């Protein structure tokens, strides 16, 4: 196995980008490129794989699986931890590249790199022990968790480093091999991440393929791949599941969200509405806890668990709204490499056009816009003006739909596998409430069930409300507080299965009951 010493011998170069197949950097006849969303200028060329490239990668992964699956959990953890150290060592290079391809401010890009190596280190500490169900004079019955084989990670464009690391780590820790498919909008960090991994893992254990919109369907239908870990929209997730069902692949689907927040009347408005607070890393928190307005606009709203509907108790509604307005006005949109930028662009053109459609609805639907509402289309990048819609109707499009979702014109094309990620833009509806049962019903009135939060100084009451919310992740007095030690997944059409923690490790395993008759 490659050593950690070799891994730290030289830093990666970030001027050329290659597929990684069987431990080697490979190129293709045809290439393509992404776009810097802040400037609309092309980023460097990347490979465009063929079906033959995918076949080669699957063969290499199956060959590597035979040995990798027999390594010890200690060996796997050591390799993964060394990989995490090497990623941390090149934080600045990865962060700059991430800003150029994804658009987020450089400060936020550095945080994402941190989350990537933090996730790998924490998952490297995890394991699934055998479970002894019966052990007596007659028999011993043991439940074992065995690796599936070749896994594939389909990674979205909003967090291309963090989410790739969150899929790679549990796959290799459970003895699987994995092929990483970055989004065609953000292929660069994913390719470099896997190139770095070759210094710590045998050839074929971790591979990466860059391609166009055909690559996703090729992967999900390939008979040599046993598991798909997909993060994307609900519409695309259904297609992934349909394709994977033909070979009975295991799937983990982390899909769309329409996250509500219920703000109770006893909150400290000036603290909760606009401000940003931080949790100490000594508490091993993986993400900053951002307050309400920040939670809606973080990463320009391009987060599956961003707040998308805010229900504010009527008695504090006006004060809370005004604090959110002031915070929203303070945001500075621009190129993420510029020092004062707090809000980057929308990552790609299809999603930008989707959000633009909501601005067209403002006059048509008669929305009451209290900040924003108009967008400067002459800007150099895909920038969206942060906007708050005051008390729209509960059945209005801005409340019901995800502002970031599939373009209808693409619904029957292969492009749907890539572009329709499940996040929202920085357009936020806020609504008052008075009756508790009613607001809970409104919060639950969606086919999505990814995240939700309750904000109150009465923790007992807040927990009772939270227990009634139909979501896989419910937070009290915070939102988006995720951690590699905790399971993360959605209810209803927000997904199947969960990622990270013991639950996430098990999703990369078969369950084997070993019955020994004495």
Q: Termini, distance in Å?
A: 39 Å
Give the integer mean of the pLDDT values: 90
Helix coverage percent: 25-40%
Q: So what's the overall shape?
A: globular
Category by helix and strand content: alpha/beta
Task: Strand order, main sheet: write it out.
Answer: 14-15-16-13-12-17-18
Under CATH at level 1, the class of the largest domain stands as Alpha Beta
The number of E-state strands comes to: 20
CATH topology of the largest domain: Aldehyde Dehydrogenase, Chain A, domain 1
Question: What is the strand content?
Answer: 15-25%
- Describe the main β-sheet briefly: 7 strands, mixed
Active site: 254
Keywords: Oxidoreductase
Region (Disordered): 28-49
InterPro entries: Ald_DH/histidinol_DH (IPR016161), Ald_DH_C (IPR016163), Ald_DH_CS_CYS (IPR016160), Ald_DH_CS_GLU (IPR029510), Ald_DH_N (IPR016162), Aldehyde_DH_dom (IPR015590), LUC3-like (IPR044086)
Top keywords for this entry?
Ald_DH_CS_CYS; 7-stranded mixed β-sheet; Ald_DH_CS_GLU; alpha/beta; aldehyde dehydrogenase (NAD(+)); Aldehyde Dehydrogenase, Chain A, domain 1; 6-stranded mixed β-sheet; EC 1.2.1.3
């Amino acid at each position: 196995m490659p050593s950690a010493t070799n891994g730290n011998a030289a830093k990666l170069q970030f001027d050329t980008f290659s597929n990684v197949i069987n431990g080697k950097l490979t190129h293709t006849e045809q290439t393509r490129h992404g776009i810097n969303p802040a400037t609309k200028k092309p980023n460097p060329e990347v490979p465009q794989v063929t079906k033959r490239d995918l076949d080669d990668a699957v063969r290499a992964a199956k060959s590597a699986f035979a040995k990798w699956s027999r390594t010890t959990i200690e060996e796997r953890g050591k390799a993964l931890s060394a990989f995490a150290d090497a990623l941390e060592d090149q934080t600045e290079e990865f962060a700059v590249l991430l800003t150029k391809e994804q658009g987020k401010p450089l400060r936020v890009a550095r945080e994402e790199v941190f989350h990537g190596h933090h996730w790998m280190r924490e998952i490297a500490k995890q394991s699934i022990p055998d479970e002894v169900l019966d052990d007596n004079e007659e028999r011993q019955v043991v439940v074992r968790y065995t690796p599936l084989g070749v896994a594939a990670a389909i990674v979205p464009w909003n967090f291309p480093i963090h989410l790739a690391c969150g899929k790679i780590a549990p796959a290799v820790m459970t003895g699987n091999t994995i092929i990483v498919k970055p989004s065609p909008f953000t292929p660069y960090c994913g390719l470099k991440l896997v190139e770095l991994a070759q210094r710590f893992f045998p050839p074929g254990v971790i591979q990466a393929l860059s391609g166009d919109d055909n690559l996703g369907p090729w992967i999900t239908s390939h008979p040599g791949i046993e598991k798909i870990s997909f993060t994307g929209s609900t519409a695309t997730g259904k297609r992934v599941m349909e394709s994977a069902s033909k070979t009975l692949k295991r799937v983990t689907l982390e899909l769309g969200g329409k996250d509500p927040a219920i703000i109770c009347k006893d909150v400290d408005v000036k603290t909760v509405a606009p401000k940003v607070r931080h949790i100490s890393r000594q508490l091993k928190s993986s993400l900053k806890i951002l307050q309400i307005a920040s939670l809606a606009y973080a990463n320009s709203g391009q987060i599956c668990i961003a707040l998308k509907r805010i229900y504010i108790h009527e008695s504090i509604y006006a004060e809370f709204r005004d604090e959110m307005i002031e915070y929203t006005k303070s945001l500075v949109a621009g190129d993420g490499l510029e020092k004062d930028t707090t809000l980057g662009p929308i990552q790609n053109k299809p999603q930008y056009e989707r959000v633009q459609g909501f601005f067209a609805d403002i006059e048509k639907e008669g929305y009451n816009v209290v900040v924003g509402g108009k967008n400067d289309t002459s800007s150099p990048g895909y920038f969206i003006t942060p906007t708050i819609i005051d008390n729209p109707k509960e059945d209005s499009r801005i409340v019901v739909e995800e502002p970031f979702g599939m373009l209808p014109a693409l619904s029957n094309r292969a492009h749907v596998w890539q572009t329709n990620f499940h996040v929202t833009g920085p357009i936020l509806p806020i609504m008052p409430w008075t009756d508790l049962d009613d607001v809970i019903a409104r919060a639950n009135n969606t086919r999505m069930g990814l995240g939700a939060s309750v904000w109150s100084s009465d923790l007992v009451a807040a927990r009772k409300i939270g227990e009634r919310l139909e979501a896989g992740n419910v937070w009290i007095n915070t939102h988006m507080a995720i951690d590699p030690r905790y399971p993360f997944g959605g209810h209803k059409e927000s997904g199947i299965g969960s990622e990270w923690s013991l639950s996430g490790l098990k999703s990369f395993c078969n369950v084997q009951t070993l019955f020994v008759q004495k």
